[in-house]
């Protein structure tokens, strides 16, 4: 009886030890190096990450660590670059338990979806949960907020700000009304062009001969333009001095260069 009890106890311990390993092996978007989540929580977060990754045609990730000695921004950028490559669509949430910092790194279209103001709102929900030890709630807020921003689309008048040069790049979006108006104008112009040409050249074949010999003279002139000087004007946008790394305001997204790629994002302590 005692041997049988030991046997079942050993099987139970093996099952408990195998459960998180199995969950981690089946997860491609969640890397819980610290062990903050249960196997069921990892599976739930993996579903959210997989769904959002398909929606943005890229990759959305979450990683936890307590051994990182680099700056959270550099760690996050490098991690995201390894997953999706430079300038491809993606985002990663880093929970650095050793330095007690949270950081969100974005790339590709996620830079435009998660603007500075949207990132501030996201961190406002994530950080208190982390301070309270509610790690699953913090991770859920990250995925749900990111999904909501992707669903809402890039805000009107959006722009990117290079934090090193101050260069502003505007993001132009065409609304469905603008597209419909452009389509109607193009159709009207095409019909008008067809009617005018048809009315001018209603000639039967064989009844008209074009006097090409009389009208074959060609006069060519040479026109030269020389570019003397060109100028590119940039202005530096003051950086936000609050606790958000890579700050900024309005509908813009602050960007920086790292490892040959362009990244957005920011973070806070908790």
TrEMBL record:
Presence of keyword Transcription regulation: no
Signal peptide: 1-25
Region annotation Disordered: where it falls in the sequence: 239-270
InterPro entries per record: TPM_dom
Keyword vocabulary terms for this entry: Membrane, Signal, Transmembrane, Transmembrane helix
Segments crossing the lipid bilayer: 176-197
Keyword Lipoprotein: no
Stretches assigned to the TPM domain: 31-148
One Pfam family of this chain: TPM_phosphatase
Extent of Gly residues compositional bias: 245-270
Xref: Gene3D superfamilies: 3.10.310.50
Protein name: TPM domain-containing protein
UniProt organism field: Enterococcus diestrammenae
